[in-house]
Amino acid sequence: MHDNDSSLIIDSDEGEKSANTSSDCHKLPDTESKSVPVLPSQCRNISSNMDQLQAEKPENQDSSLVQPTTRRSRRGFIPLSQLTINPEDVLKTRGCSDTEKLKVIEETEGWIVKIKPECADNLKASKVRFPKHLTLAFLGEVADSFKYCVNNVDTRYKHLKRKYQWEDTEEEKDWFYKPSSPVNPPNSDGINEGPFYPTSAMLPDASLLEVIRIDHYRQMFTWKKRHANTLRRKAEYILDFKRKNRNDLYKVKWCGLPKYAATWVRPIDISSFRYEFARKVFEFWEALKKVVPHKKMPIVRRSNYSISSEYVSQLCSEYQKLKRESMIKICAENPLCDALLIENEYDVSGSPFNFEFISKNKFSGTQDQLESYEDEKKTQKDVADAMGYYCKETCGECSWNLYKEYALAVHKSTYTKHKHYKYIEERDYWKVCHPPDFLIFECIETCVCKKEGNCKLDMLKKLRDNHTKNRFLVSRTGDDRGWGLTAMQPFKQGEPVIEIWRKGLMYSMDLTQNDRNMAAYTVDSSRMGNLSRLINHSCDPNLVTYKIIKEDRNINRPHPVLFAARDIEIGDELSFNYKLTIIDQNEGSSRDDDNSESDEDCITVEDGRPFLCQCGSKKCIDREKHEKPKKKNLKRKNDSKASKSKKPKIG
Ligand SMILES: C[S@@+](CC[C@H](N)C(=O)[O-])C[C@H]1O[C@@H](n2cnc3c(N)ncnc32)[C@H](O)[C@@H]1O
């Protein structure tokens, strides 16, 4: 291990300081041409440099355990990477002598101490007091040598509190003592091997906000900038580079941590995954070459250098592209890979999958209701069969007949022979070809075209058959909208994208069309659903909802399907219009924000819309509300100036 203690301090503010003082800081070799920009060939030197460093590391060093040492840093504390925490000692220092009972501590992730849930009560009984900020994060205050960490955490906590204006709540005081259950069951030795205790299980009665906050703290402490270099985390990619007094610093985005947790490190301080890091450095220079003009690349003889922010943001989007491409490649190369792609570069909130993932609608009513639903379905189908609503000679016959009935009955419009899908020859695909407020009737098994295998009107079936082939990325939006769904393949305008099983805040969508006498049916994905549940609202959406009628030929049981409203590229966030409606309670009138579709399935929330829209589109209904107050002030100022200037002169 590198024994220069000042090398510990590598963060955005202090990295520079340490770089100045350190004598063996990493720098690119000066031996080559002095005016040559730093190019990938030289990056290989970095990697060989790091190989050397790796070799210097004692073999038996297990970085998952903090090692004992007597060496103290110049600042008077022991570098965390050189500390050992002996759980029993810790307990002794806290006056807990019954070590058999209190098998308390698992040491993980550098310096975070996890307390086994069953011990929490014992600790409570033995009156061990933990500072509040530590209890929040489920840390233990373990030894005096950790004091500085505690102070650090304290400062961090105060900062966060100020930043997010968090207030203490009553429950917070109690959080530490709440029993928890680990993720994995104990192994044969009775030891819990779960990687982490999920906050929701740990705090079953905590509100969602509290759970998020605790998770946030826990994560914060795992990536503390000061110790980023000792964390056992892989570098995901390098975001930025600067040279300060001939010392090179790289800004690293760590795997599993948000972008804002990126830290400045010197390669020499990277204690884990060095080879990986060297590769990332190499990739960084490769990517940088693509965006920074040759003239502006850092030259070796310059002792100070930083990349202009314009190039850094270009580099980030380049990385994003590369990352997504590699995700797609991984999926394509592995035909069995039915994994969900999840990406969160913005914060530390956990998985969005707090619902049961299902691939078919489930009926949530009682057995009686289910039976009557099945009976109704059967009757409808029998009626449809008897009426001959299936293709007898040509594909599309069934849909024309059904459409005729529907158009005349519901829309009272004149019927013209109708086609649901149109073949676009030049681009070789079938697209939907009528407005979304009409139902689509698809061919069924009784149809002759189905029997002969030349049906062209069964898009929903194709969508279902292909549902694993359509690739999506679940991604954090980076604003208050939470998670969203991103296309990982292009879709052409009019193509079906995904079957929808939820709508709006309530994650539900009413299906009933026009028969007020029939029981209403709703697709509700609050507890179960598919990926469509994660699609956000937009006032200028790239998806549009169509309703498709299949086997039972029942217009009150359509399958909502999202079709591409325009061409969608890889990386575009998917969105559709929730048709948010405000009911004006005083006047009893409703305002529909989108008149293009019928208002049968609008979300109507009596005291206003369920959320302020943050879709960011030019057509956003809440755009004005998000505009910076500065502008308004400016406007007000201008107005008042104008009104002053307009004042008629008296006399
Ligand atoms: C069906 S969920 C969509 C997935 C959701 N973003 C998540 O993380 O679970 C609908 C919720 O997402 C949020 N949301 C969706 N679109 C939004 C928008 N345009 N502006 C603000 N919030 C939005 C709202 O909180 C809404 O209740």
Automatic annotation (TrEMBL):
Alphabetical GO biological process terms: methylation
Compositionally skewed regions (Basic and acidic residues) per UniProt: 24-33
Domain SET span(s) in chain numbering: 470-579
InterPro entries per record: Chromo-like_dom_sf (IPR016197), H3K9_Histone-Lys_N-MTase (IPR050973), SET_dom (IPR001214), SET_dom_sf (IPR046341)
Keyword vocabulary terms for this entry: Chromosome, Metal-binding, Methyltransferase, S-adenosyl-L-methionine, Transferase, Zinc
Pfam families recorded: SET
GO molecular function list: metal ion binding; methyltransferase activity
GO CC entries: chromosome
Sequence segments annotated as region (Disordered): 1-41, 624-651
Cell compartments where the protein resides: Chromosome
Stored CDD domains: CD_CSD
Protein name (database record): SET domain-containing protein
